[in-house]
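Input structure tokens:
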């Protein structure tokens, strides 16, 4: 029997927690392509992903899930198409403390629309402990207005449990017969 390899993509704006989430669940030390920020990104964090992040989950001796994090900055969007090739689903992370997280949601769901329509998406909202509004119901309403009924959760990107829940929801939405 040959190895089964699956691929999940993490995307979202700078600082939403993509690199952190991959590190929280990867069975290997993640590979990152962080560089010091030289533009307005440095107001949010000192380093930013410029190509991708990579992690791996070993489900069994014969099955692996490869985790790829996209750069959050639009100027690196050429990587987005490269990274989604062969992917089974998208994890969209949104930072609730950003000025307009709904604009971020619209931007990323539009940028990845073709991929989402062929595969599936799950949304994780980070930093809700720092900024309580908007709430999950508001995000759900925005997703419905975009005709994207996707699972949405409040998460801490540092939490193995929270990020695992996102991955499980994504896998379940792809195949409702999946069990833990």
């Amino acid at each position: 029997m040959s190895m089964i390899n699956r691929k999940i993509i993490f995307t979202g704006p700078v600082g939403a927690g993509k690199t952190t989430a991959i590190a929280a669940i990867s069975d290997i030390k993640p590979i990152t392509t962080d560089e010091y920020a030289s533009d307005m990104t440095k107001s949010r964090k000192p380093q930013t992903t410029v190509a991708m992040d990579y992690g791996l989950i070993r489900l069994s001796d014969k099955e692996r899930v490869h985790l790829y994090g996209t750069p959050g900055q639009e100027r690196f969007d050429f990587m987005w198409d490269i990274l989604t090739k062969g992917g089974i689903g998208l994890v969209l992370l949104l930072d609730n403390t950003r000025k307009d997280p709904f604009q971020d949601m619209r931007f990323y769901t539009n940028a990845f629309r073709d991929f989402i329509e062929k595969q599936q998406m799950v949304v994780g909202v980070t930093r809700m402990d720092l900024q309580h509004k908007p709430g999950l119901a508001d995000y759900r309403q925005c997703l419905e207005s975009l005709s994207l009924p996707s699972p949405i959760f409040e998460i801490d990107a540092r939490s193995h449990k929270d990020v695992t829940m996102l991955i499980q929801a994504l896998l379940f939405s792809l195949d409702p017969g999946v069990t833990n």
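Residues 23 and 30 are 6 Å apart (CA to CA). Residues 160-174 form the longest helix (15 residues).
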